[in-house]
Amino acid sequence: MTRRGSIWGFLIAVLLLFIWATWFSRLYVDLLWFQSVNLPSVFWISLRSQWAVTLVAGLLFGFLTYLNLWFTRPALEELSQEIVPPEIHEWATARRLRFLLLLVALVVALISGLALGQEWLTVLRHLKGVPFGGEPDPVFGQDVGFYIFHLPFYELLYSSFVTLIFFNFLLAAGAYLVGGYIHFFSGRFQIHPRARAHLGFLVGLYFLLKAVGYWLSAYRLLFSTRGVAFGASYTDLHAMLPALRILSVVALLAALAAFYNLVRPGLRLLGGAVAALAVLSVALGNVWPYLLQEFVVKPNEIVRETPYIARNIAFTRRAFALDRIQQQFFPAELNLTAADVTLDNPTIQNVRLWDWEITDKIYQQLQGLRSYYRFDQMDVDRYVIGGELRQVLIAAREIDYNLLPGQTWVNLHLKYTHGYGVAASPAARVDRDGFPVFWVKDVPPVSEVPELTITRPEIYYGEQTNTYAIVNTAEDEFDYPKGESNAYTRYEGTGGVPVGSLFHRLVFALREQNYNILFSSSILPESRALIYRNVVERAQRIAPFLVYEKNPYIVVDQGRLFWILDAYTVSDSFPYSAPYDGINYIRNSVKVTVDAYNGDIRFYVAEDEPIIETYRRIFPDLFQPLSAMPESLRAHIRYPEYLFTLQGDAYARYHMTDPQVFYNSEDMWQVAREVSGTGGSQPVAPYYAILELPGADRPEFILLRPYTPLRRTNMVAWLGARSDGDHYGHMIAFLFPKEKTVLGPQQVESNINSTPEISQSLTLWNQQGSQVTRGNLLVIPIKDSILYVEPLYLQGADSPLPRLQRVIVAYASRVAMAPTLEEALALIFGGEGTLPPQEGLDQQANMLALVQRAQQLYTEAEEALRAGDFALYGAKIKELGVVLNRLQELAGSAPPPGQP
Q: Residue 663, Cβ neighbours under 10 Å: how many?
């Protein structure tokens, strides 16, 4: 071997060693990590299963490829005799040929094994699949589990073997071509009998598989989009299904013809079968279904498609659990009294006056404390405070590592290792400056209510922790800012993997491709590396077969911080079920909790259903029953927004159960729309509220969303999902009377815009250089009525902080705006009694509230003048003018005393 060859060999060996070492380091660190979270069985089951599938597939496909090439050996031997010098012995030539064939087979084995090894879960789901039970599919009588667990496995086998046969055909044909067994002579191809028999056998195998493929394709008709509803339609079952059966038989005949040619050479029979298959594929697979659809189905579509529409309705409702939604009549009366809307009412007490985006800005400015702290997501939850259920906005104070001033390795991984505490405020309270009232604030956390006391505020695992941290090093960890200096700490938790020994440092350095880990003098024998610190990534690493909510939410529980993450089992293979967001089956089967300090992660089964039961069979140590979750944490689980959104989108159409009504879209709904903060139009997002449902004996945490008829603005229903206690997961659709008009959000927004004092105030504020942001219009069911509340936020031109400036309340056709919710309610309902039907009494209540508001504005203007704040003084005087003008209008239209 030459010197240059030796160098290249050495470099290749080093490269292969480096690739293997990197792979081993990732595998070994993952094993340590799975052990650290007490789930080593998940690691070993996943690894053994993947390797088993890789090995079996690789050996099988490699052996078949080698066997296929072995039949081409005579042609290759003749070729080698022509190109190999005569001085080389025949046995050496044969050995080299065998080595070449073996090398090609090994390459095929490696590629196919690695590719099919990624499908290990498909294999395990097939082996461990749990039947769904219930109604089987109406066409083939198969359990739904067949389509979700078994059909994907059969299709995987089919596609894999078709690919193998096609590739081996090309290999064999190429071998015979270069070996001279196939050549062009006298204007035609000459094929050696051995080559003809070999290739004919492969063609026969291909058509045999094709027959199986046509048979399997019939099951996919249940996911057809040809008809007016998702699933097998009239044309699919009366044209495509017979066509696929016929094509399957013809493909089988073509396979038999190919095998027959092995004993009776000749292409006439095989050619005829192939031609028939090609012609019938076009005629039966395209032309006949088109003719049937156009001339038989479309002229009588409703009659032909009714039974298939009914199937689509039934299976879609079942797949999205819409058949569990309880429908209840909601009268939408106008009989609320002042006593119904006092602050003693839990619903009024918890009206959310703070939108997420606005609150996030305020939290960031008032509680960010340092430039690198970030509140990633505002969460909505409920806590029992002072014996009462209160809706709370809460967000975690985490470090945004992109904003750290010193982007050194020590800072990123050893010094700034964790976020610190949360900020929390009641959703319905406002301080005198127009900001939230903080129940938890500052660092160390100051809790204004004992129920939110935090004793372990450090957040090592969160939503923004996307990098590893090494703790218990020679470097003290930054804990929190403390005046002009900082407070420091050391990690006392149990999370992480060991990196103290030289071996572990080397392995971890290879994994992270960072030599600092190997050479840093700060890493001590007791040091540990915290990895997979992002909550969603942490869960995905353990159970990648689940689909996760994008945003986990943080919970204060007994002084510690926990993340709760919703996980779903989903499928796109539920027969006859219409897909939404790419899936046609979903269940919120799992609740995941993560300790923000230790990183302890638990998977709790929230709903027993076949897919999660299958995974429990595969991973028996992974899941726990929901009853095993601590009761204090279980009090914070909530109905997830993603599931609710999908179900709501489906229910807007699939609340119609009559096929004819469904076909004509006679009662189609859409999500109600509202005015966005910038003045445009947007769908009302699902939102949480504390409500006392009709017939309930206590307030509950509800996720709800209003709906209107398609292309109309009046409200037709609202959909609610319950989150508390034994009622968790129950959904109710409250239907409004069809004989009366219930105002939708857009109609209420129109009434707001046409109210003179409101439109004048908005114009005035905008002219002063301030930015007015309209909050979400909340549709709030109270007793048998609907109340509408919309907060208004004002942000000065020179201020980064928006403030709650006004609260707008609408009830029936009446609209009122005031500095507080209580004052706005007083403008609507007066001091007592029911909603006054007399115009005069209505005006008197408004006039009284306006007089009180005028007095308040005058007092505030005088205080601003004394303080020398002339800008504020001018704003108050202008607003006072608006109030006085409105008062004058009401006084001019009020009836004389004593007259009705």
A: 16
> Are the C-beta atoms of 776 and 790 separated by less than 8 Å?
yes
Instruction: Give the residue among 690, 671, 569, 693 at the shortest CA–CA distance from 321.
Output: 569
Kind of pairing, strands 601-605 and 623-625? parallel
Answer whether the bond into residue 444 is a cis peptide, omega within 30°: yes
User: CA separation (Å) from 76 to 63, 90, 195, 200, 602?
Assistant: 19, 13, 12, 19, 60
Query: Alpha-carbon dihedral of residues 30, 34, 40, 42, nearest 10 degrees?
Result: -90
Which class for 547: exposed (0-12), middle (13-18), buried (19 or more C-beta within 10 A)?
middle
Contact 122, 150 (CB under 8 A): no
Confidence band (pLDDT; 50, 70, 90) for 125?
A: very high
Burial class (CB in 10 A: 0-12, 13-18, 19+), 263: exposed
More confident residue, 596 or 893: 596
The token duo for 896 is 């004389």
pLDDT on residue 866: 74
Secondary structure (H, E, C), 191-237: ECHHHHHHHHHHHHHHHHHHHHHHHHHHHHHHHCCCCCCCCCCHHHH
The predicted-structure confidence for 754-809, as pLDDT tens digits, reads as follows: 888 888 888 888 776 788 889 999 999 998 899 999 999 998 877 778 999 999 99
Burial class (CB in 10 A: 0-12, 13-18, 19+), 781: buried
> Strands, E, within 453-499: which ranges?
458-459, 469-471, 477-482, 485-489, 497-498
Best CA proximity match to 247, nearest among 288, 198, 212? 212
The dihedral formed by the CA atoms of 788, 672, 308 and 246, expressed in degrees to the nearest 10: -150
Q: Which two tokens stand for residue 304?
A: 């032909």
- Which residues, 6+ apart, have CB-to-CB distance to 7 below 8 Å? none
What is d(CA 30, CA 24) in angstroms, rounded to the nearest whole number? 10
Please, what is the Cα angle at 427 between 423 and 428, to 5 degrees? 135
Mean pLDDT of 701-709: 97
Structure tokens at 99: 């080595």
pLDDT value at residue 185: 67
Neighbours of 295 (CB within 10 A): 9
Q: Which amino acid is at 717?
A: A
**pLDDT tens, position by position, 665-680:** 999 999 999 987 666 7
Q: Which residue has the tokens 């697979």?
A: 285
pTM of the model: 0.88
Average pLDDT over residues 401-423: 94
* pLDDT per position as a tens digit, 828-882: 887 433 333 323 334 555 666 677 777 777 877 777 777 766 666 776 786 677 7
E-strand stretches of 537-645? 547-548, 553-557, 560-571, 585-595, 601-605, 623-625
Burial of 367 (0-12, 13-18, 19+ CB in 10 A): buried
- Candidate from 70-84, 302-316, 467-481, 708-722 with smallest mean pLDDT: 70-84
Q: Which residues contact 140 (CB under 8 A, 6 or more apart)?
A: 218, 219, 222
- Give the residue from 899, 873, 750, 737 showing the smallest Cα distance to 813: 750
Structural tokens at position 205: 């195998």
Region at 111 (left for phi over 0; alpha for psi -120 to 50; beta for the rest):
alpha
DSSP three-state, residue 130: coil
| Contact present, 211 and 255 (Cβ < 8 Å) | yes
Return d(Cα 489, Cα 476) in angstroms, integer: 6
| pLDDT reported for residue 899 | 42
Pairing of strands 458-459, 681-683: unpaired
